[in-house]
Amino acid sequence: MYSWKIANKFKFGRSKEDKEREKEKEREKSKDKEKHGFFHHKGHRSESPYREPPRDSADRKETIVASTSLIAPVRLSTDVNKYSTTNSSISTGRDSQRTTGEFDDYVADSNGGRNELDQAYSTGDDESADFGRDSSRISGSGNSSTTQDETGTNAEPLFSGIMTVKVYGGEGFKLPVPITSNVQILKKLLSSGVIHQSAEEPGVDQLISSLSQLKLEENGDEENLIEGDVATRFIPATITLPSSTDLNPLLYFTIEFDNTVASIEPESGTISNLNFNKISTFDVTRKLPFLKIDVLARIPSILLPSKAWQQSNSSDPHIRDVLDRINSNQDIHLDSYNLPLTLDFNSATSFRLYNHQWVSLERGNGKLNVSVDYKPATNRSLSIDDFDLLKVIGKGSFGKVMQVRKKDTNKVYALKAIRKSYIVSKSEVVHTLAERTVLARVDNPFIVPLKFTFQSPDKLYIVLAFINGGELFYHLQREGRFSLSRARFYAAELLCALETLHNLDVIYRDLKPENILLDHQGHIALCDFGLCKLNMKGQDKTNTFCGTPEYLAPELLLGQGYSKVVDWWTLGVLLYEMLTGLPPYYDEDVPKMYKKILQEPLRFPDGFDKDAKDLLISLLSRDPKRRLGFNGAEEIKSHAFFSQLNWKRLWMKGYIPPYKPPVMSSLDTSNFDQEFTKELPVDSVVNDFLSESVQQQFGGWTYVGSEQLGRSVR
Ligand SMILES: Nc1ncnc2c1ncn2[C@@H]1O[C@H](COP(=O)(O)OP(=O)(O)OP(=O)(O)O)[C@@H](O)[C@H]1O
């Protein structure tokens, strides 16, 4: 079984006892803090190795957007204080608007007040130029031949269709740990399951008697156990847990295509001989080399052997990991397989790619019987009516993000609705178009995949894969900080995402826990590309003052012009925040924080890991030329902090994430803030008047299938 090796090898993560001790210390310290009336948010830098950030939704870091290019550089003695007047607008909660325009004191309007829309097609090194150069080639419609796009120019061929995966049955699966042989427990659970296919199948009593005839393993404590591979021949694939009335699959599959996940649960059978008979359809909007199949076990802790057995076996890191996951209600990843997809997108007719094929999983943990069909799309234009609106899952500066279900394929997506008049009034058209352009071009396992974009006269819509493990912010908020191995895993996946963007000449500019989502397995999916700067080759510099206060790089604050290297600064800030609970120069008072970013020495809690410290010092170098990553992502990847990582394997999502978010199904929104999910999901009706020329700016918006990936995104 794959596992996150580094964690096991170096045991960087803290033990439960350590955590308990630390919690106790923290409790003492916070009593102390209350007594002395200080919290770290007040800028106090505690000597304690760990600071407990009192996060809640209101602590979300807000993005600053300044859409003009020049800023007055910060002169420390005086100008830093100027920021105090904008302080409140920067640090308000998530519902507050972006701060475009609120920085006017510090942002010199290089465009002489011209409306940004007027310049959307101009050239030159300003934000507006990005979309102008790109707009002629960002859209199209039609199926497999060269077509005309909305602006009338020739577009590259587009490919899209629907792929249907049928899973009939599975054989040879095992449980990863022995289970209890307690007859009472087994009888209760076995009788609650669905096992019968026909009248000839054995009944529960017969199963129990078969179990009792098994040669049960005896350990030192003379506890009888049933080995995982033996148990599976008798245990139903789905059972009802004591605390529930629902059927719970003990084993299930996920089929993942382009970050859209279908969960395939057994219909009947035993774990070693399963019947699925399930069909799942996927919207195909880009060419991907394979379909990822994962098999997971969801074992209730009631089935585990006694605590004594668990303790005596916990020296085996594999068993310990499995037991830890079961005891904390996490699913266990058993095996996976990448099913190659040689889809002929040019085909005008449907075809079958696999026909009742037995597919053996990678590490020999059983096999599955599947068929795969592909049907080219016929109806290519989408509207909001093609979706059922299910839940509100988030709010950005420009509108709601909703969980939706596409009516024809039943696939669940995230839909971002943006009101055109609003982004026009905020001069945010260019950033919004840049977001769509980057998403349409980028292809990286750690970046949220774009599925479709479409528009109505009043709104722009972006349909993305629904990433349902919640924001990294949400998890960091709950846990305070992450273990070293967990922070390393997220940093490594993000490094790959940023590297891909840089290779496409894009600066991301807004890395922060609020913009990072976890998928159902716990892998990273970077979202929110609204601040991307396109067409930044090599060491090209730009000047726009934007980002998030806590994450702003010194060269950006100083108005010296900045390049891609700012993203490596933000990676350093993020890694520091994941390991300690707060960004390195955090201060509730924004001007003070800026001053600290520019001047204060970087401090580490006692006992901080040596390699992590060395990497952070290199990433948080105030001189961009001396910052690690100045010569490309490769030099960060080669740092000792990542020495145990196989980057190819990481890229293939080959490491099991250190934490799997509790996700029950593709519909599950439990990892999202109730503040949003309790809202009624409606696409509000607006009747804004937008002139013909304004509407034309959105001419290249629609996306229904993959666009050619160029060397760079422009
Ligand atoms: N693909 C997705 N799957 C699940 N949730 C998502 C997805 N995309 C966005 N969200 C949720 O919606 C929130 C807002 O989305 P996003 O950050 O893209 O909006 P925005 O308007 O660009 O926000 P901001 O004001 O931060 O720039 C995210 O923080 C996230 O919680």
* Overall helicity: 25-40%
Shape: globular
How many beta strands in the DSSP annotation?
25
Distinct helical segment count: 22
The CATH topology of the domain at 161-376, please? Immunoglobulin-like
Shape-level CATH architecture of the domain at 161-376: Sandwich
Radius of gyration: 27 Å
CATH domain class name of the domain at 161-376: Mainly Beta
Alpha-beta classification: alpha+beta
Average predicted confidence as pLDDT: 75
GO molecular function, one term: ATP binding
Catalytic activity: L-seryl-[protein] + ATP = O-phospho-L-seryl-[protein] + ADP + H(+); L-threonyl-[protein] + ATP = O-phospho-L-threonyl-[protein] + ADP + H(+)
Organism: Lachancea lanzarotensis
Keywords: ATP-binding, Cell wall biogenesis/degradation, Kinase, Lipid metabolism, Nucleotide-binding, Phosphoprotein, Serine/threonine-protein kinase, Sphingolipid metabolism, Transferase
Question: Can you put this structure into words, describing what you see?
Answer:
With 714 residues, this protein is of the alpha+beta class. Among the domains are: 161-376, Sandwich (Immunoglobulin-like); 384-467 and 688-697, Phosphorylase Kinase, domain 1, CATH 3.30.200; 471-652, Transferase(Phosphotransferase), domain 1 (Orthogonal Bundle), CATH 1.10.510.10. The strands form 8 sheets. A 5-stranded antiparallel β-sheet has the order 13-14-5-18-17, with no helix packed on it. Strand 20 and strand 21 form a beta hairpin. Helix 6 runs antiparallel to helix 7 (204-213), helix 14 runs antiparallel to helix 16 (566-580) and helix 16 runs antiparallel to helix 18 (610-619). The longest helix has 21 residues, at 16-36. It is globular and about 75 Å long. 48% of the residues are buried. The model is unreliable at 1-23, 25-55, 67-126, 128-157, 196-200, 215-221 and 708-714 (pLDDT under 50). It binds adenosine-5'-triphosphate. Adenosine-5'-triphosphate is lined by residues 63, 393-394, 396-398, 401, 414, 416, 448, 464-467, 471, 514-515, 517, 527-528, 530.
